[in-house]
Structure prediction request, 548 residues.
Amino acid sequence: MSELKRGVYPPPLKDPHSNDTTQPFWDYTLQGKLAASKCNKCGTMLLPPQPRCFVCQNDKFTWVELPGTGTIYTYTVVRHPLRPGLDQVVPYAAGMIELDGTQGAGARIQANIINCDVEKIRIGDRVKVVFEKISDTYVVPRFEPA
Amino acid sequence: MTLKDQTAIVGVGSTPYYKRGQSVPETELSMACTAILAALDDAGLTVKDLDGFAIYSSSCDPATVGSVLGVEEIRFAATLTSGGGGSAGSLGLAAAAITSGQSEVCVSLMTLQQAQRRLGGTQVGDSPPTSGGGSPYGAGGIPPTMAFQAHTGLLSPGHSFSLLTQRHMHLYGTKREHLAKIAISQRKNAITRPTSIRKEPLTMDEYFNSRIISDPLCLLDYTMESDGAIAVITTSAARAKDLKQKPIYIMGSANGGMGRWGSAIFTYFQMPDEYFASSGHRPVARRMYEMAGVGPKDVDVALLYDHFSPMVLMQLEDYGFCPIGEGGRFIDDGNIYFDGGSIPVNTHGGHLSEAYIIGMTHVREAVEQLRGVAVNQVKDAEIALVTGGPAGLPVSGTLLRR
Prediction:
């Protein structure tokens, strides 16, 4: 972890530890893009990607780039540091984002919500994705007010 | 054929309840043995009679306990998967083992020592978790799904339950005052009990002055961390009639949940909108009532799994004591209080104020209520509801009657 910044949660991983199913997501984030796995048969979007579609059980998917915008579905503001070092980071906001271009449930994403007043964020707020390069293999998505 | 009324709880035993880590030099194994022997003794049985382990959350290793206690023959050894969600359901597992002829006398138990291992700590350490040791809160190695959570800052079960609660507040107008009333009601119940760890009176001011851990939950919405063991002995209704205690019959039991609840709060979060802001218990409640042939109006006392206060509120809805979204108003109207409420809830103080032995304190209290020997006795209690979870699936509910 380089310098700690209030509101910005520092990931403890340096690599996505991916497999064939998950690596395409990280290939997109390395290019600064957000993408989801779309079922070839019924069009359901999955995030994180899974081996089977939960609607039609198909196992063939195509990766689709998303606009990177969405709406806060639910959130929390973490005020108590759960591990050493996080006292310099709290309070930070984290939540679930319903992503534009998807059907909602099944393609929500969990993320740290940054560059916002944590006392003012609300469910329904519009947000857009921002990326941080953690390592040469791991670029993580966060969201900020749109 | 269902399980209805074919088996009964005949014995309950426990160790003292301790604050986290204070049970040392006891071990999870030694406490399991103590609780099992006490439960057998309560029933008027001995180790010679015991032949089954129907547990949850892999609470003990029946191979080890069986050899240490000198159980003559183990005929059934099974656990419900996942975590505390299986506590009430382990009674149904025991009933299934007995009614199917696989076991005659089954023990269900939890033994817990949080000196080395703390249950609230997903990803809490500086390094990512490498071994879960059977805990639902950890995992072996670093799974590929971890990278989708590692950057979010959502670290613990408390953070996850905050997200469910925030959504419930948004949809239904649920307020922190409602959660406060749950905590205060349960503390009031705990004060009179010698087994309780938290016995100081709790006021609304103190609740609102307590530290927020993650919005909207404060320290007093969280369970405490405890050590201890509780064991429960189940046998056939026929055999139960001749034992030391009045039989407490298992009327109905169900475990599971909607498939897309999945591992839910810890790693999944893609539950459909219609039951995201819930306790995950709705389908379990329906099947449990159907088996028992009764409804929520017939329940005299409810022992609802309460690792986090909002889960009490959401279970009041999901078990049909009030309509979905009305939990807050139902609490405002005084329905959950031991003294005069329409459905007294967690008369033992629950995980919030008595002790946290992952759901088994609730089973013990249900049995004491129906035997008529509870400290905070609900007058003429005939039917008790006891629940486990929510966590990842399965969650569970069991109806007991005297």
Summary: Chain A touches chain B through 48 residues (CB under 8 Å).
